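Handoff note, outgoing to incoming analyst
You'll be picking up this chain. Sequence as last confirmed:
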Amino acid sequence: MRTTITKKDCPMRQIDTNIKLSALWLFILLNIVFRDLHQFAMKPFLEMLLTGTYNGIEVTEELMLLGGVLAEVPIAMVLFSLLLTRRIGRPITFAAAFITTATLLSSAPSDMDDVLHLVIELAAMVAILWTAWKWPEHDRAAA
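Most recent structure output, in case you need it:
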């Protein structure tokens, strides 16, 4: 016997696409921030930073600027997801998801909690891409 779940039977409530995307970007951002802050509790990480290098790469002002720009992408998407219409928001979301995913995958996880956060961040990124892909053409927020 095959059962079909309708929207009426679904245990999750329907959320406006803009709000859902913003919440997902915030979820990713909080995981990134917590993962980074968690590293500061580890002595080897602090010792490495005090040498002026990170994973064998010299930390320069240019590298810090690049990191700031890459970190700004998910930060901006929390706001842009709320403000942009589907026509503009959808391609911007795909571009931001690509940039953020590349940033997340650019350095290998160094311990088990990094793996946990990376898996959660990537799962949320898939949810963002799926939500943007399925974004209704006539969403209530665009009306």
